[in-house]
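Input set for joint prediction.
Command: fold jointly, output tokens.
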Amino acid sequence: MAKPVSIAVVGGGLAGLTAAIKIAEAGQHVQLFSIVPVKRSHSVCAQGGINAAVNTKGEGDSPWEHFDDSIYGGDFLADQPPVLRMCEAAPGYIYMFDRMGVPFTRTREGLIDFRRFGGTKHHRTAYAGATTGQQLLYALDEQVRRFEDDGKVTKQEGWELLSLVIDQNRICRGLTAIDLWSMEVDAFPADAVILATGGIGAIFGKSTNSIICTGSAQAAAYQQGAVYANGEFIQVHPTAIPGEDKHRLMSESVRGEGGRVWTYKNGKPWYFLEEKYPAYGNLVPRDIATREIFQVCLEGHGVDGKMMVYLDITHMDPQVLTRKLGGVLEIYEKFVGPDPRKVPMIVFPAVHYTMGGLWVGFDQMTNLPGLFAAGECDYSIHGANRLGANSLLSCLYGGETAAAHAVPFAQGHQKRAPEKSHPLFTAEALRQREINATIMRKRGPENLRALHEEMGQWMTEHVTVIRHNDKLRRTDEKLRELQERWDRIDLNDEGAFANQSLLYARQLDGMLKLARVITLGAIRRDESRGAHYKPEFASRDDAHWLRTTMATWTPEGPELSYEPVDTSLIPPRPRKYDVEKQTAFLL
Amino acid sequence: MPSMSSTIELKIKRRDRPEAPPRWEEFAIEYRPNMNVISCLMEIQKRPMTRSGARTAPVNFEASCLEEVCGSCTMLINGRPRQACSTLVDKTGTRLELAPLSKFPVVRDLVVDRSSLFERFRQVKAWVPIDGTYNLGPGPRLSPADQDFRYLLSRCMSCACCMEACPQVNDRSPFLGPATLNQVLLMITHPTGALNKEERLEAIMGPGGLGDCGDAQNCVRACPKEIPLTTSIAQLNREATSYAVRRWLKR
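tokens >
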């Protein structure tokens, strides 16, 4: 038998661990890189659930219906074939997790229960209380530990990717990474590399993301030639609680279980979502709920005149609430205070997810042969707006698909990746050490966290819910100014051991690069679609903009080009949530 | 709520690298409502200067989700093992003493190496031995009550507060500690995980296992997720006793 190939998986969240398990199961070797112990990855923050059209409630649900909801919810920007495959694979993933021991919330018959989420009329979301992501991640973490025990997975926890190693034929042959404690930089040959490095919330300063979601791996790949697609599509979640250090998510499942959004108008409670969208009510997709909340607050109807509205569950049975939503309510109680079973919660929209990411084909491979991407860090599946509870699902689908294609790709190499001592690797490791040395010497007037906060404020103010071309252009100027000021930072830390400032400096540099991709993508796209909304161009413009934004790095900034969207399964139609959706025919 | 002065005073135990001697540094930062310990440490990053105005490196700390589900930011806050994210200044008062956990090797400042915890999970084989991830249909049915109980246990985020609080966990003892024992119970309460229940119990009946618990009950008080750790250990003890009797009868 041939010697197993060795595949590097970067990121230990749901997508990365899925890929790792599938590769190990195929008898191949995995080098698993993660900046944190994988059990602490950001997937733990996913609360509400995971979608799969298992149709246990007699509602006539089907993978096709799930597919149609997802494409419609994404405002037709997603390339369709992989979305259909994902929806078809979904029930199998739920059963797999069930067999792994995930404590899914059960019906009285002992079956897995399903609840409603936004953008659908069906009970399609399986859940484990309100910490579903945590429970799914733990199940995969346990299975990966089993493969680690068998020697099929080698974990490199506490290592951060610095760059990819790309040969003269533009093929990805491995990566360089840094040990976050010893600060040792090393190169790792691999027969293929899968990035599963999650979101980029840190670009907006405060978001619902974990603070490790800096997008540094995507930024590195982008600067080495990987195309970054649909960067301008950023999901702002309608219901979060603002905090000093981050914004904390109040899951969509709160509304899925019956929670209502309202504020006062003329002294009386005004259920504005229910009034404006009688068909879907509080369960309109996130982009719509967020814009409506913004709108009523801008009109002066926010709670106490501020940018806040009520999320109300006080009419519901407290015991059911604890069982089905306990994890979320606990966060509210710990960080805000009053018992949400008795007093309506006060919430506001916050940056939550990036639909955009590294461009991949239907095999999850980027434009660089040998480099794959899966999960939030890739652009596929969600189009212009992601439906709730589809993110965990897309991590599973992306991770599985990337593994399924990375293995034969790796086996098809004429020659295995060269040894670590090959100049290809030693030169790249040296280049990274030199970059680090340059940053370590910086003793300018600028402070990293202050620069980061300034960037976050500009991006949140001008490049989220409501976008105007003049303000977007000013933001891009600001980003270029911040990039110059980044050169004059004070690294503040001479330590040769566990120097968090050095990594923070590198991450911030990457964030600035991706922030320009997001901002310039938004400037160019003169239409409104899903999460991208420009009042000057308030409608969707399929004639000009039913296209994928493709950003390529150049030293002067991102170069944008556009590709057609694969709408081969469902022809685009207008998207409306005030009336019932008419499902497209299955061709 | 204690009365709030406009300054938060922090005393932080620091160490530049594992073998370096520890030292205390004091910081003063401006109070704002709703601050947690993490936002205090972020303020120090913004202006890394001690109280007396001396330039210093920003304090190293571990943190990720900031909503008490990832387990990263455990540290000693005023002597108690807690999550820095869910420790609010409005509740603790404006004088804070931060130190790294004492039961784990210090890496730098407030960062410690807790990899031994995950090593213990491996030792007790804390996983359900499925045949594969292929589509093999649904898993076994579970009553809502059994599932609720397992969910309670499975919310453990490996933060290690219980190990820090437990007098039996220390570098002279092989005791697995509450978090790992809790994983064993989680596994044997799953119908598939229970298929090799005896093997799992065997693994915690020797040195470092159940017998090393001193019943101090510190763990259950320290757990930020309110996992009934002492109940878990008591249930494991009953299971182990009944297994030991069956094993003896079979001889």
